[in-house]
């Protein structure tokens, strides 16, 4: 069942993601119009109209903002931290293999923030969780890239642990808890993108990881309207798709019993 859910999520998302769906609708409409079918106006209008709206309006902001505001970062850093769990998703395995140096994507703060936390908390352990989320994984896992990056940044090997088999957030929580075995009363931080935090916290709680603290990074929204107008069309489309994917993921995980609530809260 777990494998089926993983493959289904990958295969269904490609045609369902908003940008791809809009292009497919526009192409369908154009083909119908070329064949003399006036009904083709509607799918063409829907597809092209959606892309035009993304180009001129910051539609990504209202989609992402509730997700990023759900778990605010604590006003004060805990005095004692037993460990930091970092979710995968910020590294590029294929580029790392191709170029020979650790490659990061737009969620790079997931990888840099924990290093700063470790320097302030010599008592803390650092745990990375991530194998490969690809249907055709290569020889390098996300954990391999993380290990190499943190080695080069000077993190002592004895302070790091790596979970290498997980493919999604559900497996991140289950496999990492099995690896680490957190004890009652310990303080653990969960580091991931702010928009991904509601689903992540719901999954970790459901996995039995009590008391874990959300430590969000990689914000993509602002309460300042001037920031909303700064985004380019590709960035807006990317962030809109990411937000929709998170809302769909929250619903799917709740229906499957993988989260403790439809929209987990602090």
From TrEMBL:
The keyword Cell membrane does not apply. One of its GO terms (biological process) is Gram-negative-bacterium-type cell wall biogenesis. Keywords: Membrane, Transmembrane, Transmembrane helix. InterPro entries: Cell_Envelope_Assoc, DUF218, Rossmann-like_a/b/a_fold. The chain crosses the membrane at residues 12-34, 41-59. Pfam families: DUF218. Residues 82-249 form the DUF218 domain. This is YdcF family protein. It comes from Roseicella frigidaeris. The lineage of its organism: Bacteria, Pseudomonadati, Pseudomonadota, Alphaproteobacteria, Acetobacterales.
């Amino acid at each position: 069942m777990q494998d089926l859910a993983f493959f289904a999520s990958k295969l269904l998302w490609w045609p369902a993601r908003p940008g791809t769906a809009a292009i497919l609708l526009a192409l369908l409409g154009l083909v119908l119009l070329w064949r003399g079918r006036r009904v083709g106006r509607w799918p063409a209008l829907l597809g092209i109209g959606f892309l035009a709206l993304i180009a001129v309006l910051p539609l990504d902001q209202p989609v992402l903002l509730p997700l990023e505001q759900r778990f605010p970062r604590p006003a004060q850093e805990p005095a004692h931290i037993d460990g930091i769990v970092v979710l995968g998703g910020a590294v590029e395995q294929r580029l790392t293999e191709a170029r020979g140096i650790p490659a990061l994507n737009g969620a790079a703060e997931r990888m840099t923030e924990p290093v700063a936390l470790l320097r302030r908390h010599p008592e803390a352990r650092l745990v990375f969780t991530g194998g490969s989320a690809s249907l055709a994984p290569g020889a390098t896992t996300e954990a391999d890239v993380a290990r190499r990056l943190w080695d080069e940044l000077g993190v002592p090997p004895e302070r790091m642990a790596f979970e290498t088999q997980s493919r999604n957030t559900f497996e991140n929580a289950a496999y990492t808890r099995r690896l680490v075995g957190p004890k009652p009363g310990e303080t653990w931080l969960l580091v991931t993108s702010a928009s991904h935090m509601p689903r992540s916290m719901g999954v970790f709680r459901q996995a039995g990881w009590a008391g874990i603290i959300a430590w969000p990074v990689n914000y993509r929204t602002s309460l300042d309207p001037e920031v909303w107008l700064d985004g380019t069309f590709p960035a807006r489309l990317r962030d809109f798709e990411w937000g929709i994917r998170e809302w769909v993921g929250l619903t799917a995980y709740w229906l499957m019993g993988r989260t403790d609530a439809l929209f987990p809260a602090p």
